[in-house]
Specification:
Elements lengths: L10 E4 L2 E4 L10 H5 L2 E9 L2 E2 L2 H14 L8 H14 L5 E9 L14 E8 L8 H4 L1 E10 L16 H12 L4 E6 L4 E4 L3 E6 L2 E5 L8 H12 L4 E4 L11 E6 L3 E8 L2 E2 L4 H14 L2
Parallel strand pairs: 7-8, 7-14, 11-12
Antiparallel strand pairs: 1-2, 1-6, 3-4, 3-5, 5-6, 8-9, 10-11, 10-13, 13-14, 14-15
């Protein structure tokens, strides 16, 4: 699909029914537009089957609860709607986006308990998130922004407002010719990229940041399982900035990113080596099994 995301053919599921793509709109005084009262999921379908679909639907509802609203559709109803969207748009391999938000209503200040909660699901064809990164290794900047303390935000919700600093970080990275940016957390430990978790290899062991202040991604959990299937030790821990120079390989994981090797972070270079290529292959085989 090409062109603006608001001007395409197809249909979008919205509040229980399929609408023509161009008609799936909200009012300018929608609460979420002003106060970020919105949660979402990014998922991929392979040959018509959404990978870990139910886990995503469950997390969507949990994320909403973390930011103080309830999605008025059950997991089973969300599941049915996602597949209805794929079928109606005749999509096999696709990216699926479910988003729930506080809509327009009688509240237009910070509080919005009286406003209805809405849900939409769209799907479209979307190729490699990092372009040729899977073959060459993505190049990452280091963001000036840090993932905040869980005492300041609901850091384990997949909530729209938490991505503001990610957008700014990615824009800054792209201006430098990078594909993305790595972020530290509020303590100075390695955290993640702007929309993907991160892994490192050193001396036969894999190291990945402890997700104690950011999202523990579903793809991250899947890749940890694949590594353990290969009898590779995975250490989930706090990683100091000065450790970057000692790692041999690096990769990112996420629904959009899938498994993407990293060739460079700032001044630190990494080999696009055998292990990361093997994990790319293992993940591809799993999602299409």
């Amino acid at each position: 699909m090409d062109g603006s995301y608001d001007d395409r053919d197809g249909v979008i599921w919205m509040d229980g029914k399929l609408l023509p793509w161009r008609d799936a709109n909200v009012h300018v005084l929608t609460h979420a537009l002003h106060y970020a009262s919105s949660v979402f999921e990014g998922e991929r379908a392979y040959s018509g089957k959404i990978f870990e679909s139910r886990k995503h639907s469950e997390r969507l509802r949990r994320s909403a609860e973390m930011i103080d609203f309830s999605v008025p559709w059950t997991v089973d109803e969300i599941e049915a709607a996602k597949y209805e969207v794929l079928e109606a748009n005749r999509l096999g391999d696709a990216y699926v986006r479910a988003v729930a938000w506080r809509g327009s209503g009688s509240d237009m200040g910070v509080a919005s308990a009286a406003n209805p909660v809405r849900l939409a699901i769209a799907a479209w064809e979307w190729g490699a998130y990092y372009g040729d990164g899977k073959s060459k290794g993505a190049k990452l900047d280091i963001s000036k922004w840090r993932r905040p303390s869980p005492e300041t935000i609901p850091s384990h919700a997949k909530a729209a407002g938490l991505y503001m600093i990610c957008t700014m970080s990615k824009h800054a990275a792209e201006a430098k010719g990078c594909a993305d940016a790595m972020m530290f957390d509020y303590r100075g430990y390695v955290a993640e990229a702007t929309g993907a978790n991160i892994f490192f290899l050193k001396d036969g062991e894999v190291h990945t940041p402890d997700p104690d202040c950011f999202l523990d991604g579903i793809t991250r959990q899947t890749v940890i399982g694949l590594l353990k299937d290969r009898q590779i030790k995975v250490r989930e821990r706090h990683i100091e900035a000065d450790e970057l120079a000692g790692f041999e390989q690096c990769w990112l994981t996420g629904t959009a990113a899938e498994v993407t090797p990293v060739g460079r972070i700032g001044d630190h270079e990494f080999e696009v080596g055998t292990l990361v290529r093997d994990i790319v292959g293992d993940y591809e085989a799993l999602v299409r099994s």
